[in-house]
Amino acid sequence: MPEINDILSGKALAGARAIRLIEENDPKAFELLKQLYPHSGNSFIIGITGSPGVGKSTLIDSLIVEFRKLDKKIAVIAVDPSSPVSGGAILGDRVRMQKHATDKNVFIRSMASRGEKGGLARTTKDAAIVFDAMGYEIIIIETVGAGQTQFDIKDLAHSIGIVTNPGAGDGIQTVKAGILETGDIFIVNKSDKPDCEQTFQQLNMMLNMKAGSKTNTATSSKTSSKITWTPKILKTNAQTGDGVKELADTFLEHFDFMGKSTALTTKQKEMENSYFNALLKDLTINKIVEFIKTSDKYRAVLKKIQSREIDPLSAAQLLTDTIIKI
Q1: How many Å apart are CA 230 and CA 217, to the nearest integer?
Q2: Among residues 140, 217, 253, 325, which is most buried (max CB within 10 A)?
Q3: Same domain as 302, residue 167
Q4: Quick one: 39 exposed, middle or buried, by C-beta within 10 A (0-12, 13-18, 19+)?
C-alpha cells in the first residue's frame, strides 16, 4: 500500500498505486481513503459532459493548456466505457491527451464507468479524493457521454460544463430533457460550423425560458440578499483553441462566484451527502450478499437451480423475501 505521506506530497507513483487499489476494490483502498479524506476538500472540481462525439476530450486537452498557463496543477479523470471482458476502461481519452504526459503538474487517468447508468462509478469520487489530497488545484471529470443519463455529474463537481455541437439535434434534445437544470456553462464546440449561431440561439432561448419559470438571474432584492449564478453560453473550437481561454476564465469565475456566496458551502455539503449515500448503498449491498452466500438457504436454493427444480427468478425472489423478514 502506498505511503500516505507520499500521496500528500504529490508523488505521482503513489497516487497511481492508490487509484489502482480503488479500481481493484481492494480493502486497503477503503482504509487509505479514510486517512486521505481529511486532507481533501480544497480542489475545484469541474465536470464536462455531453453526447458522444461533441469533442469533450479535445476540449479538455485545450483547457489543460489554458489552466497550465495560469500555473494550475491539473488532474483529469476520464470516465471511459467499461471493457466487457476485463471491466476496465478502454483508455481512449487518455490516449488523446498524451501531449501532457511529460508535464509533472498534469495527471490524467482513465477510469471505467463499470456499467453505472450515469456513466460515473463511486470510484470516480474516490479517485477525486486522492487527487485532491495530492494537491491538484483543479480536477476535471469527463463523463462517458451516455446521453440523457448524464445527471450524476452534479453530485461530483462544483461546476458543470455541457458540450454540444452546432446543428446537433440530439445534443439539444438532451439539454431539453433535463440536463439544462444541471449546467453552469454551456459550450457550443466546433464553432467553425455553419449552424453555430443557430445552436447558440436555441440554447439561449431555452435558458431564458427556464429563467422565466424559475428565477435564475444574478439579482438581489430588498427582501432577499440571495444571488444566483446565471448560466453562460460560450462558443469554442477545441481544435484551434478559439474561445477556450474564455471558457477557462469562466469556469474560474464561477468558482469564485460560489466562494463569495453560500453556494460553495451548500454544494460541498450536497457532494458529501451524495458520496455518503453511495457508500452506504454499496456497503449495505455487499454485506447482504455476503450474508446470503454464507447461509444454508443460499446453498439449498443454488442446488435446486442447478437441478432445475426452481428457476433463478423465483430463487432470487425467495432469498430477497427472507432478507426483508430479518
Answers
A1: 5
A2: 140
A3: no
A4: middle
For 130, residues 6+ apart whose C-beta sits below 8 A from its C-beta are 7, 15, 18, 19, 22, 33, 36
Position 9 in a domain: no
Orientation angle between helical segments 56-69 and 244-259, nearest 10 degrees = 70
Confidence band for 95, pLDDT divided at 50, 70 and 90: low
CATH number at residue 154: 3.40.50.300
- Residues 99-127: pLDDT tens digits? 787 889 999 998 876 545 444 668 899 99
Question: Is pLDDT at 136 greater than 60 in this prediction?
Answer: yes
Task: Dig out the grid coordinates for 138 from the structure.
Answer: 483543479
Strand, coil or helix: what is 243? coil
CB 119 within 8 A of CB 143: yes
CB proximity list for 153: less than 8 A, separation 6 or greater: 47, 49, 118, 120, 141, 143, 160, 182
- 262 shares its domain with 311: no
C-alpha cell of residue 119: 456513466
Note the pLDDT of residue 218: 41
Claim to verify: residue 212 and residue 319 sit in the same structural domain? no
**Best CA proximity match to 274, nearest among 282, 147, 241:** 282
Do strands 185-188 and 232-235 pair parallel, antiparallel, or not at all (unpaired)? parallel
What is the rounded average pLDDT of the residues 58-70?
A: 95
What are the distances in angstroms from CA 304 to CA 78, 295, 298, 312?
44, 15, 10, 9
Does residue 32 sit within a domain? Answer: no
242 and 131 in a common domain: yes
**Is 269 in the same domain as 299?**
no
Are residues 173 and 56 both part of a single domain?
yes
Residue 168: its pLDDT value, please? Answer: 61
| Same domain flag for 273 and 306 | no
pTM (2 decimals)?
0.84
What's the pLDDT score for residue 118? Answer: 42
